[in-house]
Specification:
It is built from five helices and no strands. Helix 1 packs across helix 2, helix 2 packs antiparallel against helix 3 and helix 2 packs antiparallel against helix 5.
Length: about 140
C-alpha cells in the first residue's frame, strides 16, 4: 500500500512537470518525501546481500538506488531552499565504492566498504528528510 502511494505521488509530480506545470511547493515537498522514503527502502535492500551474493546483484541494487537518488535530485530544482549537498557527496562516494570493486573480488571482500558507503547515503537521506520535515 505504501509503495503504491509513493509511486502514484511520483507519477503525479512527473505528470505535472511533463505538462509544463511546476508543482506547488507543497506538492513538490510531498513528492520529495515520497522519493526519500523510496530511497530508504532501496538502501535497506543492501542489507539483504550476503557474502554469497553476486556482484551483479549489488549492481542491480546500485542502479535502483541511483534511480531513487535521481528522483530526489529533480525535486531539489523545484524546492530551491532544499540543499542536498551531503546526499550528493554520499552518492558520489557510493558510486565510486561500487565501481571500484573488481570483478575478481567477492562481496565478502567488499562488504565493509559497501555497507559503509550505503550507511553514508542513509545518513544523508535521513538528514534531508529531517530538513524537509517529512512525516
Amino acid at each position: 500500500m505504501n509503495s503504491t502511494l509513493i509511486i502514484l505521488g511520483s507519477l503525479f509530480s512527473f505528470a505535472l512537470i511533463g505538462c509544463g506545470q511546476q508543482p506547488s511547493t507543497k506538492e513538490a515537498t510531498v513528492g520529495l518525501c515520497q522519493d526519500l522514503a523510496m530511497l530508504q527502502q532501496e538502501l535497506v535492500s543492501l542489507a539483504s546481500l550476503t557474502p554469497e551474493s553476486k556482484v551483479s546483484e549489488l549492481k542491480a541494487i546500485r542502479d535502483r538506488i541511483q534511480l531513487s537518488l535521481d528522483k530526489v535530485k529533480r525535486a531539489e530544482s523545484v524546492l530551491q531552499d532544499v540543499r542536498l549537498d551531503e546526499l550528493k557527496k554520499a552518492e558520489e562516494n557510493f558510486k565510486k565504492t561500487i565501481d571500484g570493486i573488481s570483478a575478481k573480488e567477492t562481496l565478502a571482500d567488499a562488504s565493509v566498504q559497501v555497507r559503509q558507503a550505503g550507511a553514508e547515503v542513509e545518513a544523508a537521506r535521513a538528514q534531508a528528510t529531517s530538513a524537509v520535515q517529512c512525516p
